Amino acid sequence: MRGIWTTDHVRQAEDRLLARTPEGALMRRAAHGVALRAARMLAEHTGAVSGRRVVLVVGAGNNGGDALWAGSFLCRRGVGVAAVLLNPEKAHPRGLDALVRAGGRVLAPGEYPQWIERADLVIDGVVGISAQGPLRADAAAVFERVDAPVLAVDLPSGVDPDTGAVDGPAVRATSTVTFGARKPVHVLNPDRCGDVTLVDIGLGPELGEPDLVVLDAADVAAAWPLPGPADNKYSQGVTGVAAGSSAYPGAAVLSAGAAVRATSGMVRYAGPVADVVRVHWPEVVATGSVFDAGRAQSWVVGPGIGTGRDGFEVLAHVLGQGVPVCADADAITILARRPEVLDARDPDTPLVLTPHDGEFERLTGAPPGPDRVTAVREAARRFDAVVLLKGHCTLVAAPDGRVLANTARGSWLATAGSGDVLSGITGALLAAGLDPWLAAGVAADVHARAGEIAAGGVPTSASAVLAAVPDALRRVRSYLP
Ligand SMILES: NC(=O)C1=CN([C@@H]2O[C@H](COP(=O)(O)OP(=O)(O)OC[C@H]3O[C@@H](n4cnc5c(N)ncnc54)[C@H](OP(=O)(O)O)[C@@H]3O)[C@@H](O)[C@H]2O)[C@@H](O)CC1
Ligand SMILES: [K+]
């Protein structure tokens, strides 16, 4: 599991580390990492390092200091380095001195266009963790001219470091080099950061519990239940699926099918399209109603069930079974309209809610807004449920405040029925007894991988995503030590 820390926590940790480190040492370590990455980018994009041209865009603080020091290191490798100082009187004095001593130059405003247009690489040192709001007009005007790859120092300027939100002009980096700890922007807005390199500056021991986590493939593989020698079809958990209707039989087929593919436990289907489900998935034990379905160790409820009285009764029934429930789609709308349905819930049994933004707004009364982490964390507390907020970066919050982030691998999952597949996978993992927060997190991870495999670079469908779940699992298992 990889940790992510908010800027407040990074700053506190940096202060503690700075107090026992010689002055300037951390910045030079950070800048060295920037220079290494810059040299590699020059080699990749132009085939050479020496003789290439790099423009530094330097703001008023230490982020600009990192860029200036990195520029001085690049000068020593024969790179022609020139700096745009957005705020000359506040430019980091020692960094500026180092750059000039190494042979770098400071550009006059009239020289900006020709240098920026001929640059092989631009280094964004406008602002780092003290950033507030979008790029200011002077910086925005500089970046408008940039055609070269951009290397962001710590984070792309103009993007909110803690929420990843963009509310005006902002840098779109090809690559980002960050220091000490990953910050939320790196997972919440990967499109603006490009690939992210973490440079160790010795901050680790000063960082407390992370504010967010990201699962590695090995975490997903280790959490995923596989049958053991003593297992039978019941011991691995029976997943109940209450989904679909005559209008939406596909939701039942996809959700039940995903549960079949995700684990080796048994799957029961209960609903009005049992015959359709049986045709697609002969291994599913299908019956016409949740009221006469046998025991299950979890229920998936909602996809395609409708939002009327029947749907309400189905949701209330499964919430009263004393087993974990994954409520998706129509079940979330029912819950939003008639919260009294939660009265049926045994407070000790976990509930996982899997809204997209529209459903989240229905459920909570407000859209997630720019600070999605806070929004999902508050919703999880309010509903005493794990809340999985779908998006380009899917967030999973537990009622105790834990949040994990799963960054999508492209937009392949933006296809009809994709959510039904996710709910089925989540339900199967709940039936197997996984911690509900982890179940939702690993389900989102494998779902995203299956989407990428199914697509293979071209548009795909929910059925193809479902069919790719076993390959996604094989892929995560290949990361196990
Ligand atoms: N501390 C350490 O140990 C280490 C720190 N390191 C580095 O320091 C960075 C943090 O440096 P920092 O705290 O000096 O602030 P930084 O982000 O450069 O901002 C400077 C000033 O910019 C301004 N500004 C704000 N928003 C703006 C906007 N949208 N557009 C334009 N300008 C804007 C605002 O000043 P204002 O103009 O408002 O007076 C703000 O004070 C960190 O990210 C890392 O790179 C590394 O070297 C490792 C060791
Ligand atoms: K930056």
Automatic annotation (TrEMBL):
Residues the entry annotates as binding (6S)-NADPHX: 62-66, 128-134, 154, 251, 304, 356, 420
Keyword terms of this UniProt record: ATP-binding, Isomerase, Lyase, Metal-binding, Multifunctional enzyme, NAD, NADP, Nucleotide-binding, Potassium
Presence of the UniProt keyword Cell cycle in the record: no
Cofactor(s) of this protein: K(+); Mg(2+)
The organism's place on the tree of life at top rank: Bacteria
Limits of the YjeF N-terminal domain: 10-209
EC number annotated for this UniProt entry: 4.2.1.136, 5.1.99.6
Domain YjeF C-terminal: 216-476
Record-listed AMP binding positions: K390, G391, H392, C393, T394, G419
A Pfam family recorded for this sequence: Carb_kinase
PANTHER family, A to Z: ATP-DEPENDENT (S)-NAD(P)H-HYDRATE DEHYDRATASE, ATP-DEPENDENT (S)-NAD(P)H-HYDRATE DEHYDRATASE FAMILY MEMBER
Protein name as annotated: Bifunctional NAD(P)H-hydrate repair enzyme
Species whose genome carries this gene: Prauserella oleivorans
Lineage: Bacteria, Bacillati, Actinomycetota, Actinomycetes, Pseudonocardiales
